[in-house]
Every structure is written in structure tokens, then in C-alpha cells.
Here is the input.
Amino acid sequence: MIIKSSTALRNDYLQISNLAHEKEEPIYITKNGEGDLVVMSISAFEKREELIRLKAKLDAAEESRLSGEPTVSIDEARRRLMEKYNNA
Here is the structure.
């Protein structure tokens, strides 16, 4: 976990920006010793958002499976995909 003060952000933005890009993880910014903000690179943010979307899809699929909706085997899914691919 990376923690920096708001003073460090104000006085040395470039260093914190470089750190965010280098580490690809959130940087926690404190104000008066208390947590205030989280800063991260756009690429790290986009990766995080994609993981959240993927988890939501996996959760929905698992709910669907648990509720008894019909499923297909891996072999059947592969056969259907190959059929679509060959007909495209």
C-alpha cells in the first residue's frame, strides 16, 4: 500500500504520477493524517473497472446456474462455436 500526504501531492505531483504509472496500484492520499483520496493511473483504473465488470458477469452466470437454468457441456459449447465460426 502506498500512502502519501496531500502536501506531497501538491509539491511533487510528477513524482506521484510516475509512481502511480510505475506501480500500477492506488496511492492513498492523506490530509491532516487522515485518509482523503485515492489516486491511480488511468490504465490501472481501467484494468480495475474491467475486473469489476468481469466479476459481475461471473456472478450473474453463477446465479443463473444455481437457479437451475439449462447449461451446456464444454464439448457442446465448443461445437456450437465452431459451427458459428465455420458459417461466418
Summary: Helices lie at 6-11, 13-23, 42-66, 74-87. Strands lie at 2-5, 27-31, 34-39. DSSP finds four helices and three strands in the chain. The mean pLDDT is 95.
